[in-house]
Amino acid sequence: MAGSGQGFLSRIWVELAAIALAFGMGFLLVGAFGFNPFEVYGVLLNGAAGSLENVAWSLQNATPLIFTGLATALAFRVGLFNIGAEGQLVAGAFCAAVVGWAVPVLAKTDLAAQHFWDNIWYPSGRWYIVVVFVGLILRLLWLAFEGPRMRPPAEPVGIVARRYGAVFVIILALWAGFPLVGQSLLKVADYFVFPLALLAAAVGGALFAAIPAYLRAHLGVSEVINTIMFNFIAAFLASYLLTTATFKDPGSSPQTPAVVEAAKLSQVAVYVPQGSVHRDLAATRLNTGFVMALLMTMAVGFLLAHTTVGFEFRAVGANPHAAQAQGISVERTIMRAFMLSGALAGLGGAEQVLGVHHHFVKDFWTGLGFTGIAVALVGRNAPWGVVAAALLFGGLQNGAVEIDMMTLFPRELILVLQGLIIFMVTSGPVLADLVRRRFK
Amino acid sequence: MNNYNDMMLVVLRYMLIGATPLILAGLGGLFAERVGVVNIGLDGFMLFGAFFAAAIATKSGSAVVGLVASTALLIAISIFFALFTVTLKSDQVVAGVALNMLASGLTLFLVQVFFDRRRSFPLTDEVKLDERLFIGLAFLLVPVVWIVLERTSFGLRLKAVGENPKAADTAGISVVWYRYVGVVLSGIIAGIAGSFLPFYSGSFVKNMTAGRGFIAIAAVIFGKWKPFGILIACLIFGLADAMQTVLSNKIPSQFAAMIPYVATVVILAGFIGRARPPASLGRPYEKEMR
Question: Could you give the dihedral angle defined by the CA atoms of residues A348, A350, A353 and A354, in that order, rounded to the nearest 10 degrees?
Answer without folding.
Answer: -120
